[in-house]
């Protein structure tokens, strides 16, 4: 199915420099995904620096879209939810609509059709409620895709037609292309091949001019309909042109899909024309394009064709072998699809639970604030029991909940805060900054409440997708702590967001280098890493003091700021006078 993801509209009121970065990211995405990611991250950092909430919402949506196009579904889903929540919180209706539609697409791809339809319907309702001056077509296109997959073909057709009608007031050929291509596929599935050819030719004309990357896919589907109508010459011409486009395609996964699909259509055409040997050769060719990738629908279809073709020739033993291979492929595909569905639903539920927990904390903080205001002059209330202290207590409790899941103790948060304060004092910072950092440092991992136990407590190494989820504890933590007027909690949000950035710029979530990282984050990362190394976790033993110290020293200039490492060495040597001899002895 073809999709259409709306880019930034020209009327979006965000800073020009942020817009330029996002436009560059969108242009880079089809060619260089990593470059596109970097530009979108830079746009988000700049927007946050400028306190440009519209720009930050747009940047989050751009990051999610890039991840979706790169087929990193978990990352795309998580960031899309973040974009939706950020836009909802700050009243950026256009982004909330598009992020909700992207959530629907990701749920659709995962096979969670009920959740996908719910999100798609929400996107359409939000678009109408906000009275947005943009086409509703892409949203209706998404809903129609889901109806078609659910088997409600009549509703899907009506919704596709409504999408085309909605696009008429806007000059957006890409939207028309997506809807026409989907309509052509649906008409072909119903055996209405004349209509499918008409729609396919219209989609092909749009693709040639406006989106060449989609030409090959449209040609493959058009060839199927021409073949079904007995127009073998037109079908073969479409397939040959699709192969030429595929060979020029820079994206390997799309090139693979096109070439294998071409081979399978050629199997259909040869079989229909009674050329059994040619059909077998094309099926074998399709299978060869899969290689070792057993989790591929092409493999299942190719084995299915070979089983049928060999059975028709009376070669039953060979046919049985391919039938068994087809069954195994389909079984593995079904298991993988089930895993994707479960993982997506689990991630959505866990993120929602984390946000609800954060709302509970905010509600309790508001209660404490109201109580403090009512009793501001009450002599029973202690002098230090102001609104900020109530807020801090509420957030510290949530931080301890997060830490207990990881270490069975809340002492890590306290030790990190204490060491961070000691480092700040060693660096000559003000007493006020030292005091605030001691408390803010305790909240650095508060965002771990949103990380699933299956990842947080995993004894072995994390997969790439799991690590992407783990990294979100920084942005979730900052989101939980944001919105307060308290300088202490503003500092805590800064620490939560930046304590995994690295001096050399290779950290996360924003890849900030050097002094672009706030001082609070630069300090807390040293304290956090050192204490984590010397603590026992489910996935590691506790390192010795000498081992951990040597690690921090080795990270000077790469992971850590050299000036802070020097302060750390002075502190550790004062605490443990015999450590220098131990380090020297180990080095020898």
CATH architecture classification of one domain = Orthogonal Bundle
Question: How far do the termini sit from each other?
Answer: 64 Å
CATH homologous superfamily designation of one domain: Hypothetical protein af1432
- By CATH reckoning, the class of one domain would read Mainly Alpha
Q: Any idea what the radius of gyration is? A: 29 Å
The share of residues in helices is over 70%
Beta fraction: under 5%
The averaged pLDDT comes out at 83
Furnish the topology, listing elements before pairings.
Layout: H1 16-28, H2 33-49, H3 53-69, H4 73-90, H5 93-110, H6 113-130, H7 137-149, H8 153-167, H9 173-189, H10 193-210, H11 215-228, H12 232-248, H13 252-272, H14 276-290, H15 297-312, H16 316-374, H17 387-407, H18 411-426, H19 431-440, H20 453-456, H21 464-481, H22 487-498, H23 519-533, H24 545-554, H25 562-575, H26 579-587
Helix pairs in contact: 1-2, 1-3, 2-3, 3-4, 3-5, 4-5, 4-16, 4-21, 5-6, 6-7, 7-8, 7-9, 8-9, 9-10, 9-11, 10-11, 11-12, 11-13, 12-13, 13-14, 13-15, 14-15, 15-16, 16-17, 18-19, 18-23, 19-22, 21-22, 22-23, 23-24
């Amino acid at each position: 199915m073809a999709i259409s993801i709306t880019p930034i509209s020209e009327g979006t009121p965000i800073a020009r420099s942020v817009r330029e970065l996002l436009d560059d990211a969108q242009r880079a995405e089809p060619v260089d995904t990593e470059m596109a990611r970097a530009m979108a991250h830079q746009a988000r950092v700049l927007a946050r620096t400028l306190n440009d909430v519209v720009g930050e919402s747009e940047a989050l949506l751009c990051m999610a879209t890039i991840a979706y196009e790169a087929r990193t579904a978990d990352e795309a889903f998580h960031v899309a939810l973040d974009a939706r929540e950020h836009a909802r919180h700050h009243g950026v209706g256009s982004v909330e609509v598009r992020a909700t539609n992207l959530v629907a697409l990701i749920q659709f791809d995962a096979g969670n059709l009920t959740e996908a339809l719910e999100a798609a319907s929400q996107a359409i309702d939000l678009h109408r409620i906000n009275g947005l001056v943009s086409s509703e077509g892409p949203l209706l296109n998404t809903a129609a895709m889901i109806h078609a997959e659910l088997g409600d073909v009549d509703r899907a057709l009506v919704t596709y037609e409504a999408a085309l009608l909605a696009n008429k007031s806007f000059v957006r050929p890409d939207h028309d292309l997506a809807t026409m291509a989907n309509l052509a596929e649906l008409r072909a599935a119903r055996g209405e091949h004349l209509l499918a050819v008409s729609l396919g030719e219209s989609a092909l004309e749009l693709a040639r001019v406006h989106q060449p990357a989609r030409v090959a896919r449209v040609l493959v589907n058009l060839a199927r309909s021409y073949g079904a109508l007995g127009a073998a010459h037109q079908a073969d011409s479409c397939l040959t042109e699709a192969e030429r486009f595929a060979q020029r395609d820079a994206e390997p996964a799309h090139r693979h899909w096109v070439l294998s699909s071409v081979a399978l259509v050629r199997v259909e055409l040869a079989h229909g024309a009674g050329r059994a040997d040619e059909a077998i050769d094309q099926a074998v060719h399709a299978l060869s394009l899969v290689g070792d990738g057993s989790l591929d629908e092409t493999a299942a279809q190719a084995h299915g064709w070979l089983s049928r073709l060999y059975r028709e020739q009376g070669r039953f033993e060979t046919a049985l072998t391919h039938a068994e291979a087809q069954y195994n492929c389909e079984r593995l595909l079904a298991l993988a699809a089930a895993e994707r569905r479960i993982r997506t639903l689990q991630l959505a539920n866990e993120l929602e639970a984390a946000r609800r927990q954060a709302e509970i904390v905010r509600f309790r903080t508001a209660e404490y604030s109201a109580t403090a205001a009512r009793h501001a002059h009450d002599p029973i209330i202690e002098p230090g029991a102001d609104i900020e202290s109530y807020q801090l207590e509420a957030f510290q409790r949530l931080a301890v909940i997060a830490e207990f899941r990881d270490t069975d103790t809340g002492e890590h948060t306290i030790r990190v805060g204490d060491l961070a304060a000691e480092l700040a004092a060693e660096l000559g910072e003000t007493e006020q900054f030292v005091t605030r950092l001691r408390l803010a440092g305790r909240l650095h991992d508060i965002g771990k409440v949103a990380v699933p136990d299956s990842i947080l407590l995993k004894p072995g190494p994390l997969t790439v997708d799991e690590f992407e989820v783990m990294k979100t504890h920084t942005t979730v933590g900052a989101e939980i702590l944001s919105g307060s007027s308290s300088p202490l909690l503003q500092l805590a949000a800064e620490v939560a967001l930046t304590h995994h950035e690295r001096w050399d710029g290779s950290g996360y979530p924003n890849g900030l280098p050097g002094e672009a990282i706030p001082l609070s984050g630069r300090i807390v990362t040293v304290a956090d890493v050192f204490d984590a190394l010397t603590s026992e976790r489910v996935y590691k033993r506790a390192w010795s003091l000498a081992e951990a110290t040597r690690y921090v020293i080795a990270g000077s200039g790469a992971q850590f700021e050299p000036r802070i490492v020097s302060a750390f060495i002075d502190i550790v040597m004062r605490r443990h006078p015999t450590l220098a001899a131990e380090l020297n002895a180990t080095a020898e």
